[in-house]
Amino acid sequence: MVSVTMVTIDCEDPQELAQFWTQALDTRVAVDWGDFLILEGEPAIGLQRVENVTPGKNRIHLDLSGGDRAPEVARLVELGADVVRTHDVDDFGWTVMVDPAGNEFCVSDPHGTGAEAGDDQGEAAGSEEDTEARDRHADEVADQTPEERAAGDAAAAQAASDDAAADER
Among 132, 112, 131, 133, which Cα is nearest to 122's? Predict the structure, then answer.
């Protein structure tokens, strides 16, 4: 049986993009072959130089989660990412972002941490709600043009920054 061991991102300059992703994921470059780098992690992240980066929507993207979403989004913006849009559905939310090379990724609230996550029935409902939210997210993202994804960048970035500042207070 196979398993996912690495996700590879095509880019024009893997060395430059590694600066962003190593800081974003608090990791390091494990292997550097110049035109192909591998970042430590589970799964590992590969950064691969290609002559012609495919324009338009990513066909696959990373979903990141770790702690409070707003401060993480603000931190990633400081590192060079941009906010595309933010979604909140019931007890689950995520922010769609792009890295400095324009590759889309998401930062979400921790999964299964809704108000009902403390009891057995709530955990099952939370998992079902998470699945429904992720399905809606996938459908929505697939239907958007690059222009639609780029719309609202500044407002969403400001909202993330405002949320992070409010959390610090």
Answer: 112
- Contact indicator for 69, 94 with CB cutoff of 8 Å: yes
- HEC string of the chain equals CCCCCEEEEEECCHHHHHHHHHHHCCCCEEEECCCEEEECCCCEEEEEECCCCCCCCCCCCEEEECCCHHHHHHHHHHHCCEEEEEEEECCEEEEEEECCCCCEEEEECCCCCCCCCCCHHHHHHHHHHHHHHHHHHHHHHHCCCHHHHHCCHHHHHHHHHHHHHHHHC
Look at the chain and count its residues.
169
Residue 158, CB half-sphere, CA atoms under 13 Å: how many?
4
First-to-last C-alpha distance (Å) of the chain: 49
Residue type, 76: L
- Whole-number Å distance between alpha carbons of 28 and 61: 20
> pLDDT 10s per residue in the chain (169 long)?
999 999 999 999 999 999 999 999 999 999 999 999 999 999 999 999 999 888 877 888 999 998 899 999 999 999 999 999 999 988 889 999 999 999 999 999 887 554 333 333 333 334 455 445 445 544 554 454 444 434 433 444 444 455 545 555 4
